[in-house]
Each structure stands twice: as structure tokens, then as C-alpha cells.
Design brief:
Number of domains: 2
CATH class of the largest domain: Alpha Beta
CATH architecture of the largest domain: 3-Layer(aba) Sandwich
CATH superfamily of the largest domain: Glutaredoxin
Structural class: alpha+beta
Helix content: 40-55%
Largest sheet: 7 strands, mixed
Radius of gyration: 23 Å
Oligomer: single chain
Strand content: 15-25%
CATH topology of the largest domain: Glutaredoxin
Number of helices: 6
Order of helices and strands: HEEHEHEHEHEEEEH
Strand order of the largest sheet: 2-1-5-4-3-8-9
Length: 201
């Protein structure tokens, strides 16, 4: 290949290929952003009633959540790090809200009902703010909440017939009508998280 041919490849063809790739990528990203922007958070809502039980073995239904903005966290008591860290962070936020916390409800919803009985949840919650309630129950009833908010929850087998759970780590923020209005991520800045909670009421 002579010098002239190499010049054509390096200075004309290669830039054209790069520009074409960038164009295709920009179209893809644009379509993804458009899809996200067209997704109205208000469309995400608990679509069916459910019957679960709190840590005191008291029945909790959709009607008990309606009427008050709420914070939902999906996890499990055998969680080694994300769950206790998130619940501890939530406890701090509740404390900083002061009287404002009375206007919100806080739920720790089990994705592992096989092990998370009301009794186990009650003992587990002793380490966190008393305003946090736990919910557990029949897997099909829990699925109403899990599927309503597109929560990821999957059993992962371990050695010796044990298992753990992979799950969404964000706090789910819902209004008084159970519409999803936002989330607080696992690593959210505490001031930003506090502002999001205050915006709920």
C-alpha cells in the first residue's frame, strides 16, 4: 500500500467511520432518554389490594398506606450490609425530620418471607428508629408491592443449602395515593435525601 492510499484511509475513511459510530450512539442514547422522559412516575401505583402483617402480627392492607406519604424499603433481615446500613441511614433521617416525620410512614418490606416472620422482624427492628414498621406475609401478597414498583428481588443459592437475596437497594418514595414520586439511592447525599423526604409533605 503506497503513502497516498494510507493517507486516504487515515485522514478520510477513518474519521467518517468514527463520525458514523458517534451518530448511531447519539441516536440510541436519545431514544433511551426519550423513553425515560415519557415514563410518568405518577403512572406507577399499587394496582391491587394486599394483605400483609407487620412486626406485631397486625394486618396491613393498601387502605392502611393510603392517606399518608410513605417511604418503602425492600430488604431482608439476613442481609449482611445494604439493609442494616440503609435502615440506619433512614433512622438518622427520621431523627433529623423531627416533628415532620409524623407526617410520613416508613416501611421495611421483606423480600424473604420464608425467614422473615413477624417475630424475626420485630427483633430486627429493635436496632433502628421505632417509626419504621416491617411488613411480611404470603409471597403472592408481597408480589403486589414488589411488582407495583418494579422492585428487583431474586434468591441466590449459597453453600450448605443456604441462600441470600439480591434486591433493589433504593428507598421508594410514594405520595398519599401510593404514586411513586421519587427514590433515594443507597449512596445519596444526606442533605439531598432529607430534602426529598421533606418534599413528600
Amino acid at each position: 500500500m503506497n503513502t497516498f492510499s494510507r493517507s486516504i484511509i487515515y485522514y478520510i475513511i477513518v474519521p467518517i467511520i468514527v463520525l458514523l459510530i458517534l451518530f448511531i450512539v447519539s441516536i440510541f442514547i436519545g431514544s433511551q432518554n426519550k423513553t425515560f422522559q415519557n415514563t410518568n412516575a405518577k403512572d406507577i401505583i399499587i394496582t391491587s389490594d394486599f394483605e400483609l402483617y407487620d412486626q406485631d402480627n397486625k394486618k396491613v392492607t393498601k387502605a392502611d398506606i393510603l392517606g399518608s406519604p410513605s417511604v418503602l424499603f425492600f430488604g431482608f433481615t439476613y442481609c449482611p450490609d445494604v439493609c442494616p446500613t440503609t435502615l440506619q441511614s433512614l433512622s438518622v433521617l427520621i431523627g433529623q425530620l423531627g416533628k415532620g416525620s409524623k407526617q410520613l410512614k416508613f416501611y421495611f418490606i421483606s423480600v424473604d418471607p420464608e425467614r422473615d416472620t413477624p417475630e424475626a422482624l420485630k427483633q430486627y427492628l429493635n436496632s433502628f428508629h421505632p417509626a419504621i414498621k416491617a411488613l411480611t406475609g404470603d409471597p403472592k401478597q408481597l408480589d403486589v408491592l414488589i411488582k407495583s414498583y418494579s422492585i428487583y428481588a431474586k434468591k441466590v443459592p449459597l453453600e450448605n443449602n443456604n441462600y441470600t437475596m439480591d434486591h433493589t437497594s433504593s428507598l421508594i418514595l410514594i405520595d398519599k395515593n401510593t404514586n411513586l414520586v421519587g427514590t433515594i439511592t443507597y449512596d445519596e447525599n444526606i442533605d439531598v435525601a432529607l430534602a426529598k423526604l421533606k418534599n413528600l409533605y
